[in-house]
Amino acid sequence: MSSFASLALKPELLSNLESLNYTEMTPIQAQSLPAILAGDDVIGEGKTGSGKTAAFGLGILQHLEVKRFRIQTLILCPTRELAEQVAAEVRKLARAIHNIKVLCICGGMPFGPQIGSLEHGAHIIVGTPGRIEEHLRKGSLVLNNVKNIVLDEADRMLDMGFQETLDTILGFAPKQRQTLLFSATFPKEIESIAKRVMRSPTRIRVESQH
Ligand code: ADP
Ligand code: MG
């Protein structure tokens, strides 16, 4: 077993993990976090419940500059429910970082208020592909300062037909970035999108639940 304390995480992240009772890393966290923290592109394959959110969430939060009030991270999820769960988990992991803003931008919600929220700014956006693409095309969302992008549940996003949308979204992001892809399964389509949008990714595969 490896503990989070073995990682060079910011002290406020470590103490918050302690207060959340996250002591030991799950296998996917133990295997992917060193590469994520080193800034590598990572493909993480692990079943539901394996702790993928904290794997990418801690990597993002470690690199986030809270004083720079710019969108530094975009997390894409297949559905609004999943995006809301991820946003809640990231906020929980970020509790000890003051003034951090995590904004959820999903389909099925009125468009106008989202434009207002985006104008107010955020550090991290969690959203669903269709709506994120719409905001990018309209110019209400700009990704020029994005340092990392997460494709969460990538297999489900591809199943839902979001392949082209994902390509379009990634086309709006800086080339110089970290791309993290998480998935429960690894069909051929994932391999092909990874080839297009990632730079020599480290691939991590975890069999068991915990
Ligand atoms: P996945 O995305 O792989 O399906 P989640 O990231 O949603 O899994 O995590 C599943 C559950 O495990 C969540 O309730 C989360 O709070 C919890 N969890 C994640 N990592 C740890 C850990 N290291 N220690 C304790 N609980 C954890
Ligand atoms: Mg998940």
Can you give a write-up of this model?
The protein has 210 residues and is α/β, with parallel strands linked by helices. The protein has a single domain (6-205), classed as Rossmann fold (3-Layer(aba) Sandwich). It has helices at 11-19, 27-37, 52-63, 80-93, 111-120, 129-138, 154-159, 163-171, 188-197; strands at 42-45, 73-76, 102-105, 124-127, 148-151, 178-183, 202-205. It has a 7-stranded parallel β-sheet, with helices on both faces. Helix 2 runs parallel beside helix 3 and helix 3 packs across helix 4 (80-93). It is globular. The termini are close together. The relative contact order is 0.19. The mean pLDDT is 96. The site of magnesium ion (MG) has 3 residues, from helix 3.
List keywords for this structure.
210 residues, alpha/beta, Rossmann fold, 7 strands, 43% helix, binds adenosine-5'-diphosphate, binds magnesium ion, ATP-independent RNA helicase DbpA
How would you concisely characterize the structure shown here?
With 210 residues, this protein is of the alpha/beta class. 43% of the residues lie in helices and 14% in strands.
Helix proportion: 40-55%
Strand content: 5-15%
Write down the CATH topology. Rossmann fold
Instruction: Report on the biggest sheet.
Output: 7 strands, parallel
- CATH superfamily descriptor: P-loop containing nucleotide triphosphate hydrolases
Number of helices: 9
Order of helices and strands: HHEHEHEHEHEHHEHE
As a whole number of angstroms, the C-alpha radius of gyration is 16 Å
The SS-based structural class is: alpha/beta
* Total number of distinct structural domains: 1
Give the CATH architecture: 3-Layer(aba) Sandwich
Mean pLDDT: 96
For the record, the CATH class is: Alpha Beta
